[in-house]
Write a structure and sequence with these properties.
Blueprint: E1 43-51, E2 55-63, E3 74-83, H1 90-96, E4 98-99, E5 103-107, H2 111-125, H3 127-130, E6 137-141, H4 156-165, E7 183-184, E8 187-188, E9 190-200, E10 203-216, H5 237-240, E11 248-258, H6 264-280, E12 289-297, H7 330-350, E13 354-355, E14 361-362, H8 367-375
Parallel strand pairs: 5-6, 11-12
Antiparallel strand pairs: 1-2, 2-5, 3-4, 3-12, 7-8, 9-10, 10-11, 13-14
Length: 383
């Protein structure tokens, strides 16, 4: 008899176990892929660069409306917990409350070529948009422990390839895309995702999270409420060697997406809840970490337009936004916090031990040891 196909809730497409495969008890109801791509229309793509002994980096592309929807605005808002980082295009996003292109994530010193790649892709595929102006959104975290971050390894064509590869459904996590060289809580980190379903009357909306996790000190790590980092002190080369950065240095980028109809200010409110999900995993937010979050809603297509007018306004030239009443938004806050927590855990659980630049090594989270620590706290923590 053939074995049943693995569930996307517990494994990635390549078979890497996710947090739920370890029996970790998590709040909320996930979508079918337990990913940001559960939000209808959202596509995610990667370019992963592993070359020689020193290149461990890449590019991630999050397309809120897929490639065909580039140029169609989404309501959007952002929030910065700690500003030691970069997200280009933020001023225009704040000005208009909208996002009309991909969200790109890479390493700190590759923001420039990725920005150029978005422009090149748009010129080739949507020339009518490029004739006006482009302010691509490119965010970063620092992978210089494992990657030759100062080398010109990420190029514009890698950003283009990430956009062109973007797909729906279950996606890979861990050492892929922009997360290839990232570390989290002194273990290998990287790309992670999760989603939650919110019932609203007869409607079922999805809130999804995608993280590029590169933050936290080992001693801080908390899983399902258990402070496991205090018991996982062995094999911690980032803090046990002469590596110069203090524990907790790094950054985290989080992208929240939903198909629930939200105002730009409500999207920003979701982004402000991201730190609560991160805090569930233990971080207190390092001064040396750029913690920047963006949230968007794919509802209300055709609203929040901002293009050059071609004629005087008519009586029909109005945008209309349907939105969740503020007094009913709490379940979407719950979903955001829950999805962010699990996305971080998925990044940690799926990532593999990596050796890179200057022979630096980052161990993977030890699954068996984690199971044991959680089991000691009883069945309400791990099953």
């Amino acid at each position: 008899m053939n074995a049943p196909a693995p569930s996307p809730l517990t494994s990635t497409p390549s078979g890497r176990p996710r947090a739920r495969a370890l029996g970790i008890r998590l709040d909320g109801t996930p979508g079918p892929a337990n990913a940001l791509t559960d939000v209808p229309g959202v596509r995610i793509g990667y370019t992963t660069l592993v070359q020689g002994s020193s290149v461990r980096t890449g590019v991630t592309a999050v397309l809120p409306r897929g490639r065909d929807g580039v140029g169609v605005p989404c309501a959007a808002g952002r929030y910065t917990l700690n500003g030691n980082g970069e997200m280009t295009g933020s001023s225009w996003l704040d000005e208009t409350g909208s996002l009309a292109g991909p969200v790109m994530i890479t390493n700190t010193h590759a923001v420039g070529p990725v920005h150029r790649g978005v422009v090149d892709w748009t010129v080739a595929n949507r020339p009518e948009l490029a004739r006006q102006w482009l302010l691509p959104v490119v965010a970063e975290t620092w992978d210089g422990y494992l990657n030759d971050i100062n080398g010109p390894h990420v190029r514009a064509e890698h950003a283009i390839a990430a956009i062109d590869s973007a797909a729906s459904g279950p996606i890979e996590e861990g050492c892929v895309g922009g997360g290839t060289g990232m570390n989290c809580y002194g273990f290998k980190g990287g790309s992670g995702t999760s989603s939650r379903v919110v019932e609203y009357g007869t409607a079922r909306y999805t809130v999804g999270a995608f993280v590029q996790a590169n933050f936290g000190a080992r001693r801080e790590l908390v899983v399902a409420g258990v402070p496991v980092g205090r018991r996982l002190t062995e094999d911690n080369p980032m803090e046990d060697t002469d590596w110069f950065a203090p524990g907790g240095a790094g950054s985290v980028i989080v992208v929240i997406g939903t198909d629930a109809p939200l105002l730009p200010g409500q999207c920003k409110a979701l982004a402000r809840r991201v730190p609560l999900g991160l805090a569930r995993t233990g971080t207190t937010g390092s001064h040396f970490s750029g913690d920047i979050f963006l949230a968007f809603s794919t509802a209300n297509p055709g609203a929040l337009t901002s293009v050059f007018p071609q004629s005087p306004p008519t009586d029909e030239d109005y945008d209309t936004l349907r939105h969740i009443p503020w007094g009913r938004i709490d379940p979407f806050y719950d979903a955001t916090v829950q999805a962010v927590e699990e996305a971080v855990l998925n990044a940690l659980v799926t990532a593999e031990e990596t050796t890179g630049h200057h022979g630096h090594r980052t161990p993977a989270l030890p699954h068996a040891r984690l199971r044991t620590l959680l089991a000691e706290r009883g069945p309400d923590i791990a099953g």
